[in-house]
Design the sequence.
């Protein structure tokens, strides 16, 4: 679905300090930059009124948006060590990973939920954002949740801190638990998102594919990133795998293990991981 007219999204930066990085307090619009021909971006955009008054009122916000865009993407490139950028003004974008799983950026308005329901048969939305992420981008989350209820879409939240591999590691088991449950229900596709759909959301999808689909970590990682170019933390996924598979008091610290440890697991370890993840349902 293409953009509708000129898009305009107002972003509120309410938390100027995240993970020790100063973020500018102004308004922003951003877009996702990926290698050409890598995947088809689905876009939902709001239409800007053509009145001269409204365009004049937004001109200063547009000029300020470049600084805010650079701030956010500079942080993402440094903390995640990948070349990708999030550009909010292109609207929601996503990629179909499996027949049951979609990974993308945040829905920005109720109409995005309508699109997911009508065009993609989405029955579940798994949101990995913290409250301050939503506030940062000026998204009206209550209106999105309300629309989900009206369309009988189950909206779930498993917050993890952005640009924080340790937070992602600790949150992966519960997030994958929600994802695995939703897929097992079989009522429709599951839409997993964070803010940009480049870190937390793909990590959850990759962990699910690793733990429940019989893939090793690298196969799951390559499968997803071939469809949605992004750079989620392999270390966070490896760490979460280790936490689930080696839960005895005798275990050695994960940090002391070889660099590629827990990129694959034995069948008995995968069964243990699956049992532990399923036990987290409803927590």
Sequence:
């Amino acid at each position: 679905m293409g953009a509708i007219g000129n898009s305009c999204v107002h972003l509120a930066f309410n938390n100027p300090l995240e993970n020790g990085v100063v973020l500018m307090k102004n308004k922003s619009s951003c877009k996702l930059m990926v290698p050409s021909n890598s995947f088809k971006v689905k876009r939902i955009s709001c239409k800007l009124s053509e009145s001269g008054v409204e365009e004049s009122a937004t001109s200063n916000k547009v000029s300020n948006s470049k600084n805010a865009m650079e701030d956010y993407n500079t942080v993402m490139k440094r903390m995640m060590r990948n070349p990708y950028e999030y550009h909010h003004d292109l609207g929601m974008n996503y990629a179909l990973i499996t027949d049951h799983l979609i990974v993308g950026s945040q829905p920005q308005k109720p109409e995005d939920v309508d699109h997911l329901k009508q065009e993609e048969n989405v029955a579940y939305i798994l949101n990995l954002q913290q409250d301050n992420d939503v506030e940062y981008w000026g998204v009206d989350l209550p209106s999105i949740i309300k629309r989900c209820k009206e369309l009988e879409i189950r909206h779930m939240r498993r917050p993890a801190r952005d640009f924080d591999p340790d937070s992602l590691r600790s949150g992966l088991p519960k997030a994958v638990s929600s994802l695995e449950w939703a897929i097992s229900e079989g009522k429709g596709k599951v839409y997993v998102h964070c803010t940009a759909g480049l870190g937390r959301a793909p990590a959850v999808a990759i962990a699910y594919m690793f733990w429940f689909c019989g893939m090793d970590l690298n196969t799951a990682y390559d499968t997803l990133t071939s469809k949605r170019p992004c750079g989620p933390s392999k270390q966070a996924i490896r760490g979460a795998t280790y936490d689930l598979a080696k839960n005895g008091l005798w275990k050695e610290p994960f940090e002391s293990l070889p660099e590629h440890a827990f990129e694959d697991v034995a069948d008995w370890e995968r069964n243990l991981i699956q049992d532990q993840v399923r036990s987290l349902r409803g927590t």
In short: The chain is about 45% helix and 10% strand.
